[in-house]
Write a structure and sequence with these properties.
The chain has two domains: about 1-25 and about 60-170, no CATH class; about 170-320, no CATH class. The protein has 15 helices and no strands. The chain has helices at about 5-15, 35-45, 70-85, 85-105, 115-120, 125-140, 140-145, 160-170, 175-185, 190-210, 215-225, 230-245, 275-285, 285-305, 310-320.
Length: about 325
């Protein structure tokens, strides 16, 4: 197999195995933020004269909406509302667009037929090949057509990062949570700036958690559960268990937890009857699962009561 094909397949596998999709990829007009700017944006994500966004607004009943087969039409249908400031629409556009871009951005750089490259991989299980082809076909229209063609021109276009930033600035809880978690991924080297960034992230995550949307807790826990640190993995699993009991999107078709690809046919993610709770139970030893479950009961109580002080304390313990 040619080197370009090897690179393509290895890259796609890396994206899938990474688990979570992060919406803050640099867009064409993005510039790196300094530590001070990052901390400042977390502490005050809006201009001084703007009204504070209402992160405690009731969650829409169709908050888990997602397309079944045509991301292009799904994104195009929400584009106008997103442009006009609907935080939920902005979040859904960013999430679906980013999910497709995880595959399409790699394929744009390769020569030859993408499907042939995938099918000729000798080391991929059949299930992975089939799901990779399905995702490519599901998203291919976004490589050929612009779902934002009816919007006014914007410098750098309308990448996923643009929509997720606007959604967070609008106070949509899931976008706020995503921004808070992203800020913690690569903390500033300066200790003082890192402390400010962490404090800002904890504040944002606390405000998102008291919104009443259990998918926020699932997002927080999922990100922590992917880390190698056993303590963080167990604590993150506790947040996920609490979220699932509260009605978070934890089923096999979850739009929050990355069940969307099958990188190992023996992995519980590949079972059509899988759910987040099953994955957690299989990922932890009996002792660690018992620990996670005990922690989850405390977290669930704080989430149900929307106890801001308790949630802040729990998040500080989780993230420090």
């Amino acid at each position: 197999m040619s080197t370009p094909r090897k690179i393509l397949l290895a890259s796609i596998l890396a994206v899938v195995a990474g688990g979570a999709l992060y919406f803050y990829r640099d867009g064409p007009d993005a510039a790196p933020q300094t530590a001070t700017e990052t901390a400042r944006s977390l502490a005050s994500p809006r201009a001084p004269d703007e009204a504070a966004p209402s992160v405690n607004a009731p969650v829409a009943q169709d908050r888990k909406a997602s397309p079944s087969s045509d991301p292009y039409e799904f994104i195009r249908g929400l584009a106008k509302s997103a442009y006009e400031g609907d935080g939920r629409a902005q979040y859904l556009v960013a999430r679906e667009f980013d999910k497709c871009e995880a595959t399409l951005s790699l394929l744009r750089k390769q020569e030859g037929d993408p499907e042939t490259n995938i099918w000729e991989s000798p080391n991929w299980p059949q299930t992975l090949k089939e799901r990779s082809i399905a995702e490519y076909r599901r998203c291919i229209r976004l490589m050929k057509e612009d779902p934002f063609a009816e919007l006014p021109p914007h410098k750098g276009g309308y990448p996923p990062r643009y929509w997720m930033q606007r959604s967070a600035e609008a106070g949509y809880p899931l976008a706020v949570a995503d921004r808070g978690m992203n800020a913690l991924m690569i903390p500033p080297a300066d200790a003082a700036a890192a402390a400010i960034t962490r404090a800002g992230a904890v504040h944002e995550l606390t405000q998102a958690s008291v919104s009443g949307d259990p998918d926020v807790a699932l997002t927080i826990g999922m990100r922590q559960s992917f880390l190698d640190d056993p303590v963080r993995k167990t604590a993150g699993s506790a947040w996920m268990l609490a979220a699932c009991r509260m009605g978070a999107d934890c089923g096999a078709s979850s739009k929050v937890y990355p069940f969307w690809m099958c990188y190992d046919p023996d992995h519980p993610n590949c079972d059509t009857d899988a759910n987040v709770e099953l994955v957690v139970s299989m990922a932890l030893s009996p002792e660690k699962y018992a620990d996670a479950y005990a922690q989850s009961e405390v977290i669930e109580q704080a989430l149900r009561s929307r106890n801001e002080a308790a949630l802040k304390a729990l998040l500080e313990r989780l993230l420090n």
